[in-house]
Every structure is written in C-alpha cells, then in structure tokens.
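Customer ticket, subject: "Can you confirm the structure for TTC12 protein?"

Message body: Hello, I'm evaluating your service for our small team and ran a test protein. I'd like someone to confirm that this is what the system normally returns, since I don't have a reference to compare against.
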Amino acid sequence: PPAMLADREQEEAFQRFLRRVDDIAELVQGLNSPDPDVKEKAISEAEKRLHDQENSKEKERTTVVNRTVINTQASDMANAEAANADGFLAILEKDAKERAKQRKRNEHLANALKEKGNDAFRKGDYVTAIQRYTEGLEKLKDKQELYTNRAQAYLKMHEYEKAIGDCEWALKCNEKCIKAYFLMGKAHLELKHFSESRQCYEKVLQIDPQKGSLFKDCMNEVNLEEKRMKDEERAMQEVESGRLAALSIKELLQKLDRPDQNILYYTGGIRLLTGAIKDCTEQTLFRTNNGFSILEDNEVVRRGFCAERKNTAEVDLSVSLLFLWQAVCAGNEENQRLLLTYPDVNAQLPKLLSSGVPEIQKQTLALISLYSENENGRRLLVRHQDLTKWLQILMTFVNSPDARASSAMNILSNLTEEERFKSRCRVMLSADVLPLFTQLLASAKLVNQAALAHCIGIMGNLCADVVIRMQMAKCKECWQACLKLVDECFDVCTHKYQECLFAVLGLMMNLLLESNGIIQHFAVDITGRCMPLLREKDGRIVTRAMGVLSRILPASSSAVEEAVKGGVVKKMIKFLKAGGQIASSYGIKTLSVCTRSNRQAQEDLVMSDKKFTVLLKLLESENEMIVGNAAFCLGQCLVVPGAAMSLLNSNVVMILLKHAGGDATRTSVQENAAIALGKLCVAEPRHIVQLRKLNGLAILNSSMKYVDST
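Agent reply: Thanks for trying us out. I re-ran your input and got the following:
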C-alpha cells in the first residue's frame, strides 16, 4: 500500500541522514587527532567530500529532471536530510579553512623555533636546542624536520632511546625520510643493536640506491663494531673467568701494563684491582707500585677516560676507574693528594660532572665527596682544581631526580666552609651563578625540591660574605624568583615544598641585611607575601616570616601601611604572648618599626595589649635588644589618649627607671627607657608620685634632653 511505502522510504531517508551525521562526526574527530596519519587521512576525506559536494551542486544546476511526486513526506525528509548534511558540510568547510589558516601561522612559528634550535645546536647547546625543537612540535606536531633535528640533538646527549623515538615519529610524517633512518641507525649502533642498525641503513639503500657508496661505510662500521664487541666479550670472559682473580696488587698492575689489549680487557682488570683493595695496606701497595700512573702509561685507558663523547665501553671504563680511585683514596690523605697531581684527572673531573652520563656523574660525585668531607681534602680541591665554575656545575644537579642531587648539594655545602672557595664564587656569581639560581627558584615545582631547599640554604650561608650578599641583594630577578616561590607555596602543600619555602625565607632575611633601591622597590610585595604566612601551621615558617617583616618594614613606609592594614600589630601581640626568644625578638622589632611613625599601629597596639601586659613582660626580658624595642614601642604608644593612665597601677616606673638608671649595658636601651619614662610622666603627671618615691627625679631630669630631641 502507498502508506506503508511512504513509511519505509521515510525510515530509509532518516537512516541515511543518521549515517551521514555519524560519518561527518567521525571526520571531525579525525581532524582533531594527534596522530599525523589519522589527521592526514581525515583531511583527504574532507577534501574529497567537499569536491563531491561541489560536483553535485553543479549537476543540479545543469540538469533538469521531471519527477512525479508520489509521497510528499518522503520528499520532505529527503530535503531535510540534504539540508542538514549540507549544513554540516558547510561547517566542515569553514572549519577546514580556519584550520588551514591556523596551520599556516603555526608553521611560521615552528620554522622560527626550528631556526633557534639549529642555532643552539651549532653552538653546542644541545639542551636548549632540544627545548626549541620541542616547542616547535607543540605548534606543528607533524613537522618531520623538527623530529629529525631533535633526534640529532638527543644523539649528542647520548639519549639514544629518545633519538630512536623521534626518528619513528619522523617516519610517520614521511615514510621515506632518509635522515630519520640514518640517525636511527646511528642510535641503534650506539646501543649495540647491530641488526636494527643494519636494517635502517638497508632501508636507505632501498629508498635511494644511488647512496650506496655513502652508506657502505656505515654498514662497514656496524660490522666492525659488532666484531669488536664480540672480541671484547671474549676478553671480558677471560678476565672474569678467574684467571687473574688470584693475582696480587703488583701482578694485577703489571697485567694492566700489557699493551695492545682492547678496552674491555682493561676495564675487567681495573674491576678486579678495585676488589682487591680492602684496607690501607692495599692502598699503600697500589701507590708504591705506581698504580696512579695508569692514565699516563696506558694509551687505551687514557683515551677512553678522556674521550669527549664516550661510547658504552668508554663509559664502563671511566666508571671502573672512578670506583678504583674511591677505593684507594678512602681515608688515605696521601693517595688523595697524589691523585690530584695528575693533569688528566684534574682536567677531567669538571668535565665528568658535566658529562650528562648519570653513572659517571654519580661516581665522580662519590669521589669528590671523599675530599669534601674533611678539611685537608677540601684544601686539596681548592689548591689543585679551578673551582671558579664548580658552584654553577654542582648547582645544576638540583634538576636531577635521583641521589646525584643530594650528593652535589652536600659537596657544595662542605666547600662553602673554605674561604678560598667563597672568594672564587664572587667572580662568577653575577654572570653565571645567579641566572641559574633564579631559574631554579622559578622552576621549584619541576626540580628536585629537597635538593633545591638545600641549595637555597647554601646560597643563604654564602650571604655571610658581604660581597656575595651585596651582589645577590641587587639582583632584581633573584627577588622576583623568591616571591614566585612564596606564591606557589599556597598551591603546593607538600613537605618538600614547605622546606623550600622555609629556606627561601631564610635567604630573604640574610639579603635584607643590605639596603638598596631594589629592596625598597620590592618592600610592599615582600610584605604582602609574608602577611598570609603568619597563619601557617608550621611554626618555623611563621617565625621566619616575622623575621622578614622585621627587616623589610624599615625600608618602606608604604610597606608599614600595608602591614598595619593587614592587622600585623594584633598578630605580633598574639605571637609575643606565646613567648619564644627568637619570635619575640622579631615580633617586638616589627612593632617598634610600625609604631615609630604610624598612628594606626600605635592605636592598634593599645587596643590589642590591654594595660600593656605584653610590653611590660618584655621589659623584664634578659635580652637587651627585646628590652630596648619594648621601651621604644611603649614610648611611641603613650601619645594615644588614655594609654599612660592605664599604667597607673603597674610597676612600669620602676622597670623603666632600672633600665634608664644604668642596669642596661647598651646605651640605646638606656635612652629608650629614659625617653619612655619621660613621656609617661608628661602624658600622665600622676606617675611622678611613684617616681619621687623611688628617688628617680634626677634620672628623669637627665632624660628630658632625650624627650626634647624626640
């Protein structure tokens, strides 16, 4: 029947419409895919659909068809389907055009970042090069050149697995990329993946047979390296089979003197020698049998140890030597001295620390630790090493996630005990060390936070040196980084980050011993960061925040106003009631600065400290700095109406008289007490009665010159 036919046609039209909607949704999803292959396929499909749509419209314009309308509902549904589908395709076309524009912009940015990366690569700054290539890939994920360039930088950094990964991505962008296969072949060769390396070079020859002569040398290199590896494995087996194991120190050293052996033979011999050194007797035998001359006498060992870019065998050799020297130098000052007299050792130590090879760095740090742990060892390092750049080199280990970071910080902490090391730090501080330090502070969320806290503490200790402190206090970027770290503490509540915050507040306190325009510029910002810290649960952080406030507020009246508006007086009175020698010292100093010139602070203190209970208690402290500041605060607050009268029934006259009369050893304390006593009697004459009873009028008369001057 016609009605059933109409229903069926309507259902079919509706289902066709849904299928087209699903197809278009899938297409849009493909355009957003991070996978270059999926995205490329989706772009091609979209272009095909747009092309088909244009052809269909053209056909409709040039072809006239006479139709007999059987069912208007089916026709309406078909028209609706076409309209909706055309709407989706119109959106798709608009989206494609917008994406094309965005891609063009991103391609321009990616090319600029690629050039910056290339420039850094040419300068040998491979870390920066990798960063720039990575930033470029964030703009354009399917740019093959960025993957291959970054792979080349990874090769320079001995990051062979990462290099292979980038080459694989480059081949997804361009399956015939010769550079990707070439670099991947090199990476596999370094990892001793000989079969995979050959496959890469063979693939190049399949793509471009004309490069046969060029890649023939690469294939030969793979074959030679594989043969050498097998020879070395046999030599290693010979060494480890025990044939040399029973030999004495002297005999083992003689075996290492054998010329024309491969590197693994010597590596195995060095390991056996290390195992044979168990006490000071073997250490002495090693020295007396000229064991330290192994670098001078053995060209294979010297070349492997001094190689700039070490292969796997050279890394193993270097690590074995470092283990050996640890064994012979542990607790032996003469061996420590003798090792540093060899030029190759002296030249290589900073290079090994900067090598980027984790195991080499770890064992180099372990060796240097032997020296830094005692005074004689530190003096040997200072005497034989150019330590000018050591502060910078060791500081970079804050980026290490493992034990290297703590080892480096312990060495640095020990070295700062040497005055000659501090004097050398001054030379490179502004140019090299401070930029690195500020970068680490600004990246506190990303680095090893335990090591960063230690590093900040070390820099704080270095501030005991006036020259270093002045340089740091003038560094605008350093202050900005400190404030950024404090800001982030409210977002990151881990124990390690709290330690960084504690350390940076200590550093700021030390820097605030200086006074300069930069400090005045940041005074309000520093005050604003410290005020919320007064609510911290960690009492150590609260105490240091009080310390920073006590030192920053004298630098700026605007900072004082900021603090007073934030309720600093009430908070300080609260902390002073709780007691504690250090907190009391910082708290009363903060109050003395605020009440010196701020009437609101004076009124807040009178309101918060009823009858001056807290100040009277502080006036009886054994710490004269606290007494002097308490007397100063009291004197400033007596201008508030009713303040002097609230003290009528107290023993304030006797306390002030005692300090003004000479019990205090500091002249400033005597003066502050005398001034407070004079202001008290002027503000409330009834206090003079008590003064007469104590025979203190003569002291009051002598104190009037101080009162008049104020």
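A couple of notes from the result: The longest helix spans residues 72-122. The chain has four domains: 102-225, 244-352, 386-535, 567-709. Feel free to reply with more questions.
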